[in-house]
Amino acid sequence: MRCPQCQCLEDKVVDSRSTKEGRGVRRRRECNKCGHRFTTYEEIIHAELKVIKRGDIREDFDREKIRRGIEKACWKRPVSSADIDRMVEWTVSSIEAKFDVEVPSMEIGKFIMESIKGVDEVAYVRFASVYRQFKDIDQFIEEIKSMGTRK
Question: How far apart are CA 142 and CA 86, in angstroms?
Fold first, then answer.
């Protein structure tokens, strides 16, 4: 690891901790040359998971795209950033557990909806309106009615 201060390649690990529910490691390092301390993160990189979009187009799986979708649905709602982190982690973990190489975008949407459902009902309907491509108010009303029967 190259020191961000002096570019030296020699350092020592001062502290290591598990992060992301055991899915990664956070390391505090100290440069042997200048003594500068810095942090690095390590996590498993899964095989390049591809998303199959509508029209059979494939693109790389993007965890940040999931985060942005959840954040948009939760915008101006009483949902903490910790809640969003948990929803993203649960969604990504669920996808990685079920799919190895390719995942249909519709499945990603289902997992996101499942993660949002128990946190905030308004955010759930917002996400559902985009995911299911609601065309009119009647579809919103039907989704809200179906939420009432799920409980």
Answer: 28
Pairwise CA distance, residues 86 & 92, whole Å: 10
- Give dist(CA 83, CA 79) in Å, integer: 6
Mean pLDDT of the chain: 86
Q: DSSP string covering 33-71, please?
A: TT--EEEEEEE---S--EEE-GGG-EEE--HHHHHHHHH
Q: What are phi and psi of 126, to 5 degrees?
A: -60, -50
The confidence score (pLDDT) of residue 20 equals 64
- Residues of the chain falling short of pLDDT 50: 150-151
pTM of the entire structure? 0.63
Distances from the Cα of 12 to the Cαs of 26, 36, 43, in angstroms? 14, 11, 19
